[in-house]
Amino acid sequence: DVVMTQSPLSLPVTLGQPASISCRSSQGLVHGDGNIYFYWFHQRPGQSPRRLIYRVSGRDSGVPDRFSGSGSGTDFTLKISRVEAEDVGVYYCMQSSLWPWTFGQGTKVEIK
Amino acid sequence: EVQLVESGGGLVQPGGSLRLSCVASGFTFSRHWVTWVRQTPGKGLEWVATINEDGSETYYVDNVMGRFSISRDNGKNLLYLQMSSLRAEDTAVYFCVRGRANLWGQGTLVTVSS
Q: B67-77 pLDDT, tens per residue?
């Protein structure tokens, strides 16, 4: 199975400052069709996860442009250019290029 | 409104069975793969099973293979997860998820305990 390793697991942030979360996969994520099915999700307490980023760097509809995704090979990054209060919660990476689909452990973002 | 709504969770004894349902609305259900994902406090998010558009292909995580069965009824916009031989470690919130996880339901809690 592909192991997804996120860091850090806890991220205290200052409002208005940038933040960055890393996700490393144990193997490459190129699907047989040539795409990389790698995603980022945000989950607020008591809510379902919401997808933010699709296929490494695509921003889902309604996601603020302060969120950006990047990466290649086995290293991927989610960046928030200026953290807002509504960004608190847990962020997860996920791959669905290879069976079984696997998630990272989650990174808890909180305001300092 | 585009949404997925799960139901069927509850308390069940170890070794018991339960069937979860998920009803889709606001989009053409039959055009999408659908998946069950579960979440536990200790293990985070775990993919459980996926079914393709017409139900001819199914995929399972190893630790539910032979115990869980995913199916769908496109005429009723319904997704199912039949769970049997339930174990304490199956305790989780189960989410119904569309496609490459671009739409999630609110989840239904399954508790396996005596």
A: 999 999 999 99
